[in-house]
Write a structure and sequence with these properties.
Layout lengths: L2 H19 L29 E10 L4 H9 L10 H5 L3 E6 L1 H11 L4 E8 L1 E12 L4 E4 L2 E4 L3 E13 L4 E12 L16 E3 L4 E5 L4 E6 L43 H6 L6 E10 L17
Antiparallel strand pairs: 1-3, 1-12, 2-11, 4-7, 5-6, 7-8, 8-9, 8-10, 11-12
Helix pairs in contact: 1-2, 2-4
């Protein structure tokens, strides 16, 4: 076994230990009323119905479980998904996982962290996944810059529909964060399923083969701290109290926390200090697949 192949197994053991040491509230049902979510030992099991399915997870912020397991399952040398760079500037971390990595992810997170799922079917039009209201004067980090917002609603929408491929069929998925329009022009031409707002950036667009999934999480916030120059900084009493001066090149002003990103507002819950994660999966409609000619009745 080489180092690369052993890395997911090592990280699985480390993350399992972190999950065992952390406490989490009881899972609550989610999704639409017609598709109640049930927590099972393998909560990301495939939905038998064709179409788009969105699963939601929640873990304690201090546990570090989400970042550790995503580092373990992140594909090596994976090609950049269209729109990933723009999503990263708004705090989103996007991964496309194959069935093996997806199975490792759901086994590591466990059923206790599961928050439910929503089946959207053949979502040709945009479907709202989550939304948060921004109070007047709120500051949001948009595209890497702090912006003061009016009384607006921040949301994230997705759509996914079956498309034929050379071999069989696949699920085309698009995802974008946006600001909901407060008023819609009645004279504007709109179609059912159009995005009812202004996109924050160019969202992601990818095609999922059977068994694949899109994982959406927030990029962990960077926190400033005094760099440790040696082990004796905190143990040697002769060194005196810790220095309060800023390191060279960082300026002499106070360190202020950055405003939240769109991903933190939509996925995480600062009120109970939890990190959120979405898994977008599904299966194409059988009508778009290549017919199995061998399954038909044999001629007499």
């Amino acid at each position: 076994m080489n180092a690369r192949s052993a890395w997911p197994a090592i990280m699985l053991g480390v993350v399992a230990g972190l999950a065992a040491c952390s406490s989490d509230p009881e899972p609550t049902p989610g999704g639409d009323s017609e598709t109640p979510a049930v927590a099972t030992p393998v909560p990301v099991a495939d939905d038998p119905r064709p179409g788009l399915v969105v699963h939601r997870w929640g873990l304690p912020e201090d546990g570090g479980v989400i970042d550790a397991v995503l580092a373990a399952v992140e594909p090596e040398g994976d090609e950049s998904i269209a729109g990933t760079a723009a999503m990263q500037r708004n705090g989103f971390r996007i991964l496309v996982l194959d069935p093996e990595e997806l199975d490792l992810l759901r086994r590591t997170l466990g059923a206790e962290a599961y928050r439910g799922r929503t089946w959207h079917g053949e979502a040709i039009g945009w479907r709202n996944l989550v939304s948060r209201r921004l109070g007047r004067g709120s500051v949001l980090l948009l595209d890497g810059r702090a912006r003061r917002m009016d009384d607006r609603v921040l949301a994230m929408a997705a759509r996914g529909y079956s498309i034929p491929t050379v071999d069989d069929a696949a699920l085309h998925v698009e995802l974008t964060p946006y600001l909901v329009e407060s008023s819609i022009d009645p004279m504007a031409t709109r179609r059912l399923g159009d995005l009812r707002g202004v996109p924050l950036c160019h969202g992601i667009e990818c095609t999922l083969e059977p068994g694949q999934a899109v994982v959406v999480a927030s990029i962990p916030r960077l926190r400033a701290g005094r760099p440790r120059t040696s082990e004796s900084d905190e143990t040697d009493p002769a060194s005196g109290p810790p220095s309060t001066t800023s390191p060279p090149g960082l300026g002499a002003g106070p360190v202020a926390p950055l405003p939240p990103t769109a991903a933190e507002l939509l996925l995480d819950d600062a009120g109970i200090r939890s990190r959120g994660l979405m898994i977008i999966t599904g299966r194409p409609h059988p009508a778009f697949g290549v017919p199995d000619l061998g399954a038909g009745p044999s001629p007499d």
